Amino acid sequence: MASQKHIREYEALLTEARTATLLPTEERLLRPLLEAGADVVHPMSGHGIDDVALVSLGARSVVGVDYSPTAVASAQRRAHELGVPCHYLVAQMPNSTLDSGCADLIYTGKGALIWVDDLAAWLMELTRLLRPGGHLFIYEAHPLVPLWAWDTDEIRVRADRSYFARTNVNDTFPAHGAVERQNTLAELVMALVRGGFAIEHFAEHPEPFWRPDGAAAAAWDGRVPNSYSLLARMRDQGAGRDGGRF
Ligand SMILES: C[S@@+](CC[C@H](N)C(=O)[O-])C[C@H]1O[C@@H](n2cnc3c(N)ncnc32)[C@H](O)[C@@H]1O
User: How far is the CA of 109 from the centre of ligand 1 (A)?
Assistant: First the structure.
């Protein structure tokens, strides 16, 4: 079971958390938002290692939301051991159960969007949590990633996958057998615009956000996109909601 990973890997993740850093792009974009002491909410927080890095960049607090009690318990125990202001909550998005307007920044991704059934409902919950002018940051696998074969000699597009499919079944480590949701980049952008966000940064990256130990793939050689970073600011309530101005 995926959640048992959190128990097996507790000590290794604790060691990793002690020196946790974000990716350079994340640091560059988020440092200015965090150094004033932002309150962060992290939907689909998993092991929460990034939360320790967010605190070291200046976050006043991080609240992680995950529906796995095992992930939440491990992340909370780690936060206590490290003495960082990170708190974890068992809840199933898009019902975070958190108070409205509790966040300056929502930080998410790195394997989060594949679990989002209803992007509009998920974004609506995020806008509820954000304070006026608050930001949403996503660092996520590129929607083309399900199409890349793991061949090492040449980049190949899988014949059994479609960029426009709604789901795919994961057949690699660690979520083997899981049904993962797909959205195209355009669907993501339009959902953000309709949800009342103004996009401030959007970039595609050749590197995957995560590489399983020892794995190599031609698709990671720098020629095709494997991840993206996105920073969006919540517009004033009513401006652009439901596509009104667009
Ligand atoms: C691939 S992990 C990534 C988490 C995090 N970004 C990280 O780097 O550790 C995805 C997490 O989303 C959680 N999750 C999936 N669907 C969820 C939902 N509807 N509500 C809350 N958590 C969810 C899973 O339990 C898992 O811990």
Answer: 9
